[in-house]
Amino acid sequence: MNQYVRNFRRFLYREYIPLTKGIIVLSLVLFLGHHLLSLFRINLFSLFRFQTLRWWWRPWTLLTYPLVNWGLGDLFALLWLWFIGGSLERTWGGQTYGLFLGLATGVTSLALAFVSWVFGRNIPVTGLWLPLTGLTWVWAKLYPDRELLFWGLIPIQAQWLAWIHAGLIFFNYLGYNLLFALAAVSSIAVAYLFTGHGPFARGFRYWAWTHNYPGKGWAEKLKNQWRRRRFKVIK
């Protein structure tokens, strides 16, 4: 058993993108598990799908909805995550990359939940495409002149690809109303925290260091501070 665990860890860290690979693996496991359990009429996706008006029933779905991928378009989303997510994770490191993904996912779900509360309308949200909007935007900000082949045929620069991605998401949710469309692309706002003069533009470690945030060994530091205060009280 330990050998399988070591092999799996080696697979995750082989290309220095453990978070990206972990998300893809979890998505595929959830996909297979859902279809196996559906034979027994158990809907596994319902435990991870985000319901914008009833999210407090399952609050973890604020962050788990990107794992619910079930169509061909979602397969392309996983491939896109592998490409740009892996690139950003190698550039930023796991801490900054994980912080960005968490904020992009959470900000989008909270924005959609707020708009749903205003209009009293529930929308089931699944898939990677929403947080990938912010991820694509920040990747394009860091590498604006990088050129890709759109649909494998048309050469296009990263900065224009980010606009196309955001536009598709925006118009997809515009069918509900304008506020839903704006909430769907709200992860773009998170991108500006990690680029330009944003607080995390130089990485989470740099931000932590400049703000005297306890980094490595923070638990030991807190323990030592508590001991010193305790000794002062005894004296």
Topology:
Elements: H1 2-13, H2 18-37, E1 50-51, H3 61-64, H4 72-92, H5 94-119, E2 124-125, H6 129-142, E3 147-150, E4 154-157, H7 158-173, H8 178-184, H9 187-191, H10 204-210, H11 218-234
Antiparallel strand pairs: 1-2, 3-4
Helix pairs in contact: 1-2, 2-4, 4-5, 4-6, 5-6, 5-8, 6-7, 7-8
Question: Terminal Cα separation, in Å?
Answer: 52 Å
- Per the CATH scheme, the topology name of the largest domain is Rhomboid-like fold
- The secondary-structure element order is HHEHHHEHEEHHHHH
User: What is the CATH architecture assignment of the largest domain?
Assistant: Up-down Bundle
Strand content: 5-15%
Biggest sheet descriptor: 2 strands, antiparallel
Describe it for me?
The chain is mainly alpha-helical. The protein has 2 domains: 16-201, Rhomboid-like (Rhomboid-like fold); 208-235. The protein has 11 helices and 4 strands, in the order ααβαααβαββααααα. The protein is globular.
